[in-house]
Design brief:
Number of strands: 12
Oligomer: single chain
Largest sheet: 8 strands, parallel, barrel
Order of helices and strands: EHEEEHEHEHEHEHEHEEHHEHHHHHHHH
Shape: globular
Number of helices: 17
Radius of gyration: 21 Å
CATH superfamily of the largest domain: NADP-dependent oxidoreductase domain
């Protein structure tokens, strides 16, 4: 059974569990000590067939990046830093630049990834040059075209641009990130033969689905490096299932938080090179580092409880197949984007970011969205989501 709960209450509950367990569970080192890079050995994996190893945990830069946290992340081996030209209005890249200005000797040890929403050669070049200037570096290790929803967005012109920037020494690797229609994009990329890496949503829910399993295996066989994001599996609605209290209780008794268990579930797939995680405070950084360092594997019972929880709450999670629901609506509605925007509030407790994204939808478009019939989209949804209810919830929570 799944019951809808007040989202604020549930966020408070999960936050209190996290706060109570930070510093208590799964810390194989004394976090109060000043740890050197030599004392903490963050595991690393091959990034596809690129010949480059990356830490299995990467620092997501879509939130504020205090210099103290960047310094501590470096000490603890979290030396994969993910950012984008658009994050925090460019401030994310500037904060990395401040760090490199102070510690220029660390540049060769940090794997820097940035992204651009631009599609034309000139616009991508402009964004890349701006990113390099902001971060005070001559090159980035990986450049992503951001938010690809169709492999047709990537063409031979893109390849020529990527090859040119590699030859100029401005990027080492090229790829894309994807939030929607991910499996189709991944399968398409595997046939291109020149995509180095892909970042996609991947978590304890998606990893059980046959289409994602096939996409991951196909990309791995093609030598494409895979980076997982949205690994906590939160959705646009919050609910508590009958399985969740038992899941949390069993994990806490074993020394895991549920958040740590969800990370570990993803890491148990060797085809995932790294997890990109937002870590807005030192507590979450500590918790995630500890999960990465701890070699204890989840039990079969742990996996079964996670799978049962995923099944019971599937109606509240958007798996990113926006082409199915959006094609069933009589109108141009970015259902997948709206689901993601709402998720930033309900699952990340980041209302300001959700509001920022919603404000990009014009008033005229919002008024049209509010009047549409979503029953056909709901019938076609593999997750059986109440799409109309969720859209109306979003429009109510973030009014014009």
């Amino acid at each position: 059974m799944v019951t809808q709960k007040d989202s604020f209450s549930r966020r408070d509950f999960l936050r209190s569990v996290s706060a109570a367990t930070v510093g208590t569970f799964m810390f194989p080192f004394n976090s109060r000590d000043a740890m050197s890079a030599e004392e903490v050995r963050m595991p690393a994996r091959d990034l596809g067939s690129t010949g480059i190893n990356v830490p299995i945990l990467s620092f997501g830069g879509s939130v504020n990046l205090p210099q103290l946290m960047l310094r501590q992340a470096f000490k603890w081996g979290v030396t994969y830093w993910d950012t984008a030209n658009s994050y925090m209005g460019g401030n994310s890249e500037k904060l990395i630049g401040r760090y490199l200005l102070r510690y220029p000797q660390h540049r060769k040890e940090i794997f820097i990834v940035t992204k651009s929403y631009a599609w034309s050669d000139d616009a991508m070049t402009s964004d890349l040059n701006q990113s390099l200037e902001r971060m005070r570096t001559d090159y980035v290790d990986l450049f992503f075209v951001h938010g690809v929803s169709s492999i047709d967005d990537i063409n031979n012109t893109t390849k020529i641009w990527a090859d040119k920037k590699k030859n100029e020494g401005k990027i080492r690797l090229f790829g894309f990130s994807t939030h929607s229609n991910m499996e189709e994009c991944m399968l398409g990329a595997s046939n291109l033969g020149w995509i180095d890496a892909i970042m996609m949503s991947y978590n304890f829910r998606l990893m059980q689905m046959d289409d994602m399993k096939r996409a991951v295996d196909t990309c791995a066989n093609a030598g494409i490096g895979l980076i997982a994001m949205k690994t906590q599996g939160g959705g646009p609605l919050n609910s508590i299932s009958d399985t969740e209290p038992d899941l949390v209780d069993k994990l806490l008794k074993k020394g895991f938080t549920s958040a740590q268990a969800k990370l570990k579930a993803v890491w148990e797939n060797p085809n995932i090179a790294s997890i990109c995680s937002e870590m807005p405070n030192m507590g979450i950084l500590m918790e995630n580092v500890s999960a990465a360092l701890n070699r204890t594997r989840l039990s079969s019972g742990d996996h079964k409880r996670l799978q049962q929880y995923a099944h019971e709450t599937r109606r509240d999670y958007c798996k990113g197949c926006a082409h199915i629901c959006e094609a069933a609506v009589d109108g141009d509605v970015p259902i997948g984007d709206i689901m993601r925007f709402l998720m930033y509030w309900t699952s990340y407790d980041d209302r300001s970011r959700a509001e920022q994204y919603f404000n990009q939808i014009s008033v005229e478009h919002r008024l049209k969205i509010a009047t549409l019939d979503y029953s056909a989209a709901e019938r076609h949804c593999p997750q059986q989501m109440a799409i109309g209810h969720i859209i109306r919830t979003a429009l109510t929570e973030f009014p014009i």
